[in-house]
Structure formats: structure tokens, C-alpha cells
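Formamidopyrimidine-DNA glycosylase
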Amino acid sequence: MPELPEVELVKRELTPVINRKITGVELSSYIYKGHREGKKTIIKEPIDSFIQTVTGKTILHLGRRGKYLYFILSDDFKTTHIISHLGMSGAYFIVNDLDDIKEDNFKKHRQVILSLDNGQKLIYSDIRRFGEMHTYDSLQDFPPFKRMAPEYTDHLSREHFIRSLHSKKFSEKMIKAAIMDSEVIPGVGNIYASESLYLSHILPTKKVKNISDKRLSNLFDKICEVFELSLSRGGSTISDYRSVTGGKGEMQHSFKVYQQKQCPLGHDLKTKVINTRNTFYCTTCQR
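Predicted C-alpha cells:
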């Protein structure tokens, strides 16, 4: 699943669609079939409502909150928002023609096609179809945003991070599970949780209440460092992540522990399932 750096990179590469009007919407047969079966595949509201809401509106701004992208849309009468989650395998492409999508899997599994007033198309492809699109009049109405902590770049983020971890909700949890909760810090998933915990020498299984504030503060710094490193290297491509131009990231070549056999110091790594995800760690370097 794309984490914060990958979603941020997609957001940055989507800037050419700003100030473009959406002139038409085409949805895949998978979406229509899912809705007929009551699954609300990708489009998390009635299809007719979604199409009516976004058609004819101009994309004024793009943003990111945690692992979500959002588009601010407006016409002469109303402003609204598309809030999008990439799920496990979602990808956006800006193309002149469908054949501009080079990988057959993404071309085959195009789910949402937004036609733009310059003749281009903004395409959302999703192989596994776990992604989401919602429309909301206000971003604050979207429930995950109401609970979400400040972004890691916010000057209040470190203080919120430590205060949240001290709360009753998180103090008894394993630290890895806690930092993957967006109420503590947004955007940390399985990959960057494992990497940042290794860099801060903290065992992912350690209970939050047994970690000092000094070590928690250092962990916050390492999360920020890992995010920034990933941004500089185009994100991590493990399987399905692609940039808007179809490129793959390079961050996976810098992993210290994730999907590795040994840590950088040559110690054999352990694995443990935490929050249903396989966690990689070193019992020598981490404590």
C-alpha cells in the first residue's frame, strides 16, 4: 500500500490538471458491477451522484492528508472535493490517449476516466480495486480527517506525537501498531514503520509505556528522516506503486530491514505479524 511519500509524490506530479475543467466521467464495468452487488467498489457513493457532482467542475487545487489525496473542485455555483485513497494498487495517469499507459495491467484495470477540457484524460487505475473515491462539500466532514493528527511537517506534530502515545488508547500498545495509527502521526505504513523503528533502535514489539520520551522524540525524528529520504528517491516500488508518468521509485534499494534477511550490521532479522502485517526487526540492534 502506498504510504505518505508515495502519495505526496503522486500529488506533486498531478499539478498539470490544476485549472482544468472535468468535461466527462467514465467508470469501469467493475465499478458498476460492484455497485449492483452492494459493494460500492471504489466510488463510495451512488454512481449517478458522483458523476453529477464532479462533471463541469474545475480542479482548483490538489492536496494530501496522510495517505489520502484530495482535489478541490468548483464551478460558478458550488465548491466540492474528491477525496481519494490509492488502496493497495491504485495509480493516476495523465494521458492524451489510453495507449499512453504503457503497462498492460494498469491499462486493463483503468477504473475512473475524467475527461479534461484540454483533451487530456486523468485516469485512475486500480488492479485490486481496494482504492476509494468520495465527494464531500467540506474536507472536515470526512471522518478520517476529523481524527487525523497533524502532518509530520507541522510544528505541532512532535508534541502531538508524544502526547498521543502517552494516552490511555496507545500506552499499552506495541509501538509499531501505535505509530501506524493516523491519530498519532499520519502516513506511516508497514514499510516505514519497520525502517524508522530500526533506525531509532526500538523493538517494534515494545509497549509504548516502556519507552522514554527521549526515545519517542528520536523515533519521531527518524520517521521524518525516512519520509524525506523516500521523497528524494521517488518512493518505494514493491509491486504496484507507479508515479503519474509510470515510473517506479528507488527507495526499496535503501531499505535497512524491510524484506531483508540481515540488518546493515550483518545480524539475522526476525519477523513477526503485527496488525496483520509482517514486521522486520533486529533483536541485536533494537531493544
